[in-house]
Amino acid sequence: MNSVVWRTAVAFLFLLPLAVQAGPAPVATPEKVKGALAELEKFADQTLKKTGVPGMAIAVVFQDEVVYLKGFGVRQTGKEEPVDADTVFQLASVSKPIATTVLAALVGEGVIHWDDRVIDHDGGFRLYDPWVTREVTFRDLLCHRSGLPAHAGDLLEDLGYGRAEVLHRLRYLKPGSSFRSRNDYTNFAFTEAGIAGARAAGKTWEELSADKLYRPLGMTSTSSRFADYAAAKNRALLRVGREAYRIVHSLFDQLVSRSAVLEHLGSSSVLSQPLREEAQARAQRYRQDPHLLNEMSWRVVSRPGAPKTAYQRALLQAQEACRLAPGTGGLLNTLGVAQYRAGLFQPALESLTESDKIQAVGLKGSHPADLAFLAMAHYQLGQKDQAQTVLGRLRETMQQARWAKDVEARGFLQEAESLLQATTGNANTKSP
Fold first, then answer.
1. At what angle do helices 187-200 and 95-109 cross, to 10 degrees?
2. Closest alpha carbon to 225 in 86, 87, 57, 91
3. Which end of the chain has fewer beta carbons closer than 10 Å to its terminal beta carbon, N or C?
4. Which of 94, 111, 101 lies closest to 203 in space, CA to CA?
């Protein structure tokens, strides 16, 4: 798994059976368990300080009895409410052993079998490959070997899509590997296994997990319904660490520059309140000043050699800027350059031609970036005569005082000359 970015106050459950070692296993006695508890409390305090996790609860179960139950730290960073034995937490990937335990109960009762085909219990389930859809079993989903790419569906969930919609959309996702060839960690494969098992039992997953696990264990405060967690007064809240803020802010800059997406994130319960407020603020800033997006895009596309993914993100930013302020020459210029960098030569030609017309009026002359990338777009489309004509215009423009010493403009000229002369071999026409 990737390193943890989202930190949460977590609950630990310590089971103390016989230790697993080579040779005879030492017997855990009540005295040894009791003696270990003092060290456990020291370990808990050290863990909170070391990791920055605000709080956790620890339960020790020995010989089917709860012999220790205590909370440490606080429920929310910056608040004083303590974690105690009854504080509820979001379970994160503890859902995996819970799901398999509940399904194992159904296997024990003969309701399902590990090698049952999932589609036999959930007729609406589909994956991209019809053959895999027909053959995939509970065992395949729980072993992460269905062929789904790692973390398939997680981003949709992060954007606020519900469980049923994410599961439905798995059918449109191309496999990350061939069926049963390797393991790729997939949260929604477990989700589907749980849903299919619940349908086989004639229940919802929330009902089934309570019937087979929570109630038999006396876990009266535990639920598989997020609404129950949200309604609990004694609950631990998620915490976002510094690294998470850095990554999310980077995503705001690079991936979700579209105002509509930021607005959606701003109202999403998936993000913490500070991040929702940040998304809302950025969406508002971009609406008020699309040039902010334009500048973000230009910093990337004005230089050759960036990764393809960086140019693709920059193209999204430029497209959004032009959507928010259509017909603006400077924004069209960035859009055309971004389209060229992304390999969209015909759209680049059209955007740059329009930008050149607009800027010729505003600047009382063409902008070197328009001309340089127009020449290169013509060349990439096989229009070499037009490319040379525009390159000639660019050289003339660079003789003007306002551009003669402009380092960025001279870089565009050199890039265009290098491309056009790579095949003509006409070095004599190169600018000084």
1. 30
2. 91
3. C
4. 111
pTM: 0.54
pLDDT for position 118: 97
> pLDDT by residue (tens digit) across 139-190?
999 999 999 999 998 888 876 778 999 999 999 999 999 999 999 999 999 9
Q: Which residue has the tokens 């008020």?
A: 288
Structural domains of the chain ordered from first start: 6-87 (no CATH), 94-231 (3.40.710.10), 248-288 (no CATH), 291-429 (1.25.40.10)
Yes or no: say if 228 and 152 are a contact pair by the CB < 8 Å rule.
no
162 closest CA partner among 182, 119, 191: 191
The Cα 222–Cα 238 span in angstroms is: 17
DSSP 65-115: EEEEEEEEEBSSTT--PBP-TT-B---GGGHHHHHHHHHHHHHHHTS--TT
Residue with tokens 């003669």: 404
Please report where in the chains the tokens 């439905």 appear, as a residue: 168
List of residues 6+ apart from 417 with CB closer than 8 A:
391, 430, 431
Beginning with the edge strand found earlier in the chain, give each strand of the sheet holding 65-73 in spatial order: 10-15, 55-62, 65-73
Phi (first) and psi of residue 152, to 5 degrees: -55, 130
pLDDT score recorded for residue 161: 79
pLDDT tens digits, 323-346:
888 877 778 899 999 999 999 999
- Residues of the chain short of pLDDT 50, as ranges, are 1-21, 243, 245, 247, 251-261, 264, 269-270, 424-432
Residue 411's nearest CA partner among 303, 306, 307, 336 is 303
Residue 273 confidence (pLDDT): 57
Give the amino acid at 55. Answer: G
Q: At 204, list the tokens.
A: 């919802």
